[in-house]
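Handout for the seminar on molecular recognition.
Each group receives one record of this type.
Step one: identify the two inputs.
Step two: read the structure output and locate the region that could contact zinc ion.
Step three: write two sentences on what you found, then compare them with the reference statements printed after the record.
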Amino acid sequence: MRSRGDRHLQAVRLARELALLGARLKTIHAVTGLPPRQVQSLFFPDGLTIPRGRAPDSVEWFHGANLILRADACLFGVKYEQLRQQGLAAGDALLCAYRAYQCVTRSPSRISMDRAFNVASYLDGIWLAREPALSVSHCSHCGCAHLTAIGTPAVHSNGCPFCRLLERFHHDPRLQVAYRDRSRPLPIDADRLKAWPQAPQRRAA
Ligand SMILES: [Zn+2]
């Protein structure tokens, strides 16, 4: 069993990584358990670099988001779910899944760390959420794992976000800007996207 000191050092390490990725004090506090004042004194000593603004508490932003944000949120959420299935602690899974999301999309990240925290909360029913409101489903059209609201049909008649993204890509300049750059001739990174985890069945509660 790890000592109290080990657990505290682990929390500080995780807090530092979250702070570097732009998480708000409230998010860092929820994930690590460290008091916000302590987080501020350790990582935002001058107060000027504290992330401002209000992060979403509910998952409604995801349901109302445009296709690009929904697809990005799915990339993060599917990876987070896979890591949790593999036994990673929630905080570590949040961090690893966010880094993996950053690796397959362009910078700056369209899904902030706070929104990733929101998605993870509602996948697991922890932190912001009292119970899960999102789950990972597999699209019967394209096979991609994606996020759906619990209690709704897994796939709409016009497919998952990735079906719609691929269908619209060649006709929608916004999608071309979002998912293509000179070093990446294909949407996102095709090889990495193919290797992206197809999340297994939800684990038992
Ligand atoms: Zn699909």
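Reference statements: Residues 67-85 form the longest helix (19 residues). The chain has two domains: 4-43, 60-195.
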